[in-house]
Hints:
The chain is mainly β. It is 3% helix and 31% strand. The protein contains two helices and 16 strands. The strands form four sheets. Strands 3, 4, 5, 6, 10, 11, 13 and 16 form an eight-stranded antiparallel β-sheet that branches. The longest helix is centred in the C-terminal third of the chain and has 6 residues, at 319-324.
Amino acid sequence: MSKYRLNQGDNSVLVDVPSNAVMGATWARFRVTDGSEANPITATGGVTGGEVEDYPINTYGSLAYPSENGWVTLAYEDQWPFAGDYDFNDLVMNYRTKLIDKDGQALGYKIEGDLVGIGATFHNGFAVRLYQSSASGINKRILRSQIDQASISLIINGEQQTHTILEEGTEDAIFIVMPDTWAYASKDSSCSFFRTEAGCNINNKVSFTLSVSLNTYIASVDAPKYTLDPFIFAAEGHYHGTFLDGLNPRGWEVHIKNQPPTEKFNQSLFSLVGSDDATNTQFGYYFQTPSGLPWAIEVGSSWAHPKESVDITQAYSEFQTFAESDGRESPMWFNNATTSKVISGAQ
């Protein structure tokens, strides 16, 4: 039960719904009284003076990933399709998603994140596509036309964003969270990067919340859930390698292993001479090396990312075994860090 002190006349009250609220039909009780501290108001029972009214309401639920208050970590290499330093800190994001559900119908999404590391000289944007690929070949997607554009809200570090969030010129629903992540991060003057060097992770994290509603509800079982498709792309107006000279930078993307690129992707980049990428679209292999190593990973917790220029296979000795076995071996690789080679919150 929540209590609020009211003023004479009209009052607007914002009520927080508990995270353990049960979905479905219920009742909301409102009581007003001039009771004193010696005679406090309660949800039941009598008081001297005032009024009580009950209203039928429906509460909505959410299918949260990984949980209501937990995080996964996304980490990206922005040298694709070349191996680079393979330190997996060019962009590091704590991330979670919620599918808003009512009686088995998907109403919308809430996507939250904390930008916790940028170890890149390149400028990268961060986006999320409402899409989920499946090993069975049955992919789930939300179309741009299914988004209630008036409902889109993106808040970064407490400020409402005004850039074009729902990307134009696509069939899939793609949300540009940060057109250039460096535009939102503030690094120490003595540091080259953001939270990837020893002693340089004292900056505040960059937090975002993206909320969208659907204008056409669909069955929750048919909606993409869980990680969706978070990816990075080359920011406009910045150098991103000689192989992109003269090309649209938006055509360069990096996705989690075996997640196909978006409609904006330049397919010719899969055929660059000297590339370390072994994408095979016929078999559904994307963004991986010939031995199966990825350029983007999802770790199932908040994660200590490698320090600048430290190869992830040196910071986490079991990672290569995990990646090359498609996750069959060393599934808990991320718990076994070489502590001197990673950035942790305690440093």
